[in-house]
Design brief:
2 domains; Arc Repressor Mutant, subunit A
């Protein structure tokens, strides 16, 4: 996924790239933990860099939010290749489990981004397109193999997984169990004889 703006600032030098990556990872964790209350000072501290280093890479909060969001989408999309060698059903399920992790991080980032740039922004459109480009082939492959119902669209699957990911579970493992039950509903089942 190629973007303008936020990711154009990805540094080329190795030391600067390490700091950039540490800041993105720290921002992801801080926004997940604290939501809109995440402080840039805590992000810099968590990354092990000074606030000046943070501002050199991200002149304002908006730039950091956008870069963190886009980096997370790119990681999700790139992870589709990690599942390419698996059987079609296992490939789809593996990627959807990764998608669930993405949604939990996205909750923290997207609320603040939506408030500042809106759903119709180029970043959201680009990320939406990239996610569909990564996930639709996995669904199509599973459908072609007869593992998934032919009437299911990728939009259906995104809504299903996103909805489950938004539920607050008492135990972290519950989300995997509920997701597994829901994904079993996607499986193709020949009509039972009457």
């Amino acid at each position: 996924m190629t973007t303008t703006g936020a990711l154009e600032r990805r540094p080329k030098r190795a030391d600067a790239r390490r700091n950039y990556d540490r800041l993105i990872e720290a921002a992801r964790a801080e926004f997940t933990d604290c939501g809109p209350d995440a402080s840039l000072e805590n992000i810099a501290r968590r990354a092990g860099v000074g606030i000046g280093t943070l501002y050199r890479h991200f002149p304002n909060r908006q730039d950091l939010l956008e870069a963190t969001y886009v980096e997370e989408v790119e990681a999700l999309c790139d992870s589709a290749a990690d599942f390419a060698e698996l059987e079609p059903w296992d490939s789809l399920v593996g990627w959807l489990n990764r998608f669930t992790q993405y949604v939990s991080t996205k909750k923290a980032l997207s609320a603040e981004l939506l408030a500042t740039i809106g759903m119709e922004s180029e970043i959201f459109k680009m990320c939406h397109t990239a996610i569909y480009a990564a996930g639709e082939p996995l669904l199509a492959r599973a459908q072609a193999a007869g593992a998934v119902r032919p009437d299911v669209t990728f939009s259906d699957v995104v809504r299903l997984v996103s909805g489950i990911s938004m539920i607050r579970f008492a135990e972290p493992d519950q989300i995997n169990r509920v997701l597994g039950v829901a994904l079993d509903g996607l499986r193709y089942q020949a009509d039972a004889p009457s």
